[in-house]
Amino acid sequence: MTYHPKSEFIAVMMERGFLADCTDYQGLDEAMVNGTVTAYIGYDATAQSLHVGHLLNIMMLRWLQKSGHRPITLMGGGTTKVGDPSFRSDERPLLGPEQIQANIHGMQQVFAKYLSYGDGASDALMLNNAEWLDDLNYLEFLRDIGRHFSVNRMLSFESVKSRLDREQSLSFLEFNYMILQAYDFLELNRRYGCVLQMGGSDQWGNIVNGIDLTRRVLDNEIYGLTSPLLTTSDGRKMGKSQGGAIWLNGDMLSPYEFWQFWRNTTDADVGRFLKLYTELPVEECERLGALAGSEINAAKVILANEVTTLLHGPEAASAAEATAREVFEKGGVGDDLPTLTLTAADLGDGMSIVQALVKSGLAKSGKDAKRLISENGAKIDDKPLTDAGLMLDAAALASPVKLSAGKKRHALVQLEG
Question: Where does the motif 'KMSKS' region lie (predicted)?
């Protein structure tokens, strides 16, 4: 693509690798040069925390605000009751209102770290689509909105087509999801002057639907912009690790474990991730990403520090780096390792080492823990752990015990008090 943007935001998106596609580069670019643009990304409240997979789009909203425009974080208090069928092979479990509200509260805490909310021209807005979806009159909605949607066209969208091609059930409830998401864009345009929806490239069909609907109903010019769906250089989905999702809330994943995730980035991904997940100048990201041999490890530490500082603050990043040095370079324990604290009642007559590996998060299951031990991947106090039948009792836990899975994952097990 040879388009040369005039606006700071589009230039940053293109230069740093955020841009997959846009419905009208020139139109959006000119709108951004001519005034403050309001843009939104929607987040369904399906979990108590956002995870690393969301971080790319959160950074897009942050850059939008830094370049003088107004971001909207739209909580899907209404759409979560339906569930997005995009690229899923099954129906999502439906959540009750209390759980949805609790999830929204947990997610809002993360957004506040990246965006500045308030009443100023470029201050972010936190909205909930339950505001307009909860009180919809079904017959009016069908008549005023439903008539603009072609079922033939909806069936052609990849997210729907892939389910039907595999002969997997797609409920009418889920089929309605794309109409509701399109309606969100219409209402945000009508109520808040929002002219841009952003999202991952899997949302392209939903975004285009919203643009078509808004043009038909309000005759307004609006835009869509998507980011690439990120995979790591070894083909894994971004944000997945052996231990499960990399959560952004500190009470669901410690700042140290978050820092460690970034420190463990594959060499080939360092430069790209520095551009996407930090605010270091592009030239510096490219210089660090091009380092070879052991020098690339210094770049990974910079990546981990920068990303952790944005989310958890500079002190958490420094503490995580200090712990990592203590654990890896000096064979010590460190103050910041994930810790499993057991009561005397938990321990009883003793806890098996297999159970300790699972409870401390170093193994997913007993089977996984036994495999780790049999393949010489587990250590206890930095010594090889070879006996899957080992029991930890009060005497063994007189001082904290350090467990390790592979070279990079560690946890402490200690007795309360």
Answer: 237-241
